[in-house]
Automatic annotation (TrEMBL):
Domain Nucleoside transporter/FeoB GTPase Gate: 42-154
Protein name in UniProt: Spore maturation protein
Keyword terms of this UniProt record: Membrane, Transmembrane, Transmembrane helix
Keyword RNA-binding on entry: no
Pfam hit, one: Gate
């Protein structure tokens, strides 16, 4: 549906621009936006490679494993059924740790594995369990120690201080994650 909406907006925008005699302005705008998009993508690729390398170093140095050890007792308190199963809890810990370190693509396989493990434990097949819902909320509002994607976009856009987003992102994502957990725990009592 959204594709149709965008098509209609672009089509009528170009049509109105042509009828009002602004065809040259439209073509210049298209060319300029395409040029700036390509430049931004090239900048992003380099920065994303850098951050992926930094995250790989953190992973290889054992930093992510140390973070996982710190998280495990906390997650055992939050997840009721999954905490009893070592495979499910291990996949949850690895996914959340990878997300916290900004390894979005590396976190996906762990997230899929965690959902599969929690589905294995789920008594009501086809319906998300409370642990599955909570896990989804934690993935959506995961605490970000290093928001590498946002830093990369800010740097590619010419920001004077792309890293200035680290503290606000850490605070906002922490508040979002804590709020999400509390709301899930409250809703679990009623649904």
């Amino acid at each position: 549906m959204i594709n149709y909406i965008w098509f209609v907006m672009v089509f009528f925008g170009v049509l109105i621009g042509l009828f009002t005699g602004n065809g040259e302005v439209i073509s210049k705008s298209i060319i300029n936006s395409a040029d700036s998009t390509v430049n931004m993508i090239i900048g992003l690729v380099g920065l994303m490679c850098f951050w992926c390398g930094v995250m790989k170093v953190a992973e290889k140095s054992g930093l992510t494993n140390k973070l996982a050890k710190v998280l495990k007792p906390i997650l055992k308190l939050i997840f009721k059924e999954a905490a009893k199963d070592e495979k499910a809890l291990g996949a949850i810990v690895m996914n959340i740790t990878a997300n916290m370190m900004g390894l979005g693509n590396a976190a996906t396989p762990f997230g899929i594995k965690a959902m599969q493990e929690m589905d294995r434990l789920n008594k009501e097949k086809g319906v998300a369990s409370n642990d599955m819902s909570l896990f989804l909320v934690l993935n959506a509002a995961c605490i970000q120690f290093i928001p590498s994607t946002v830093i990369s976009i800010r740097a590619a856009s010419g920001s004077d201080n792309p890293g200035a987003i680290i503290l606000p992102a850490l605070l906002a994502s922490t508040v979002a994650a804590i709020t999400g957990v509390f709301i899930c725990k409250i809703l679990q009592r009623y649904f």
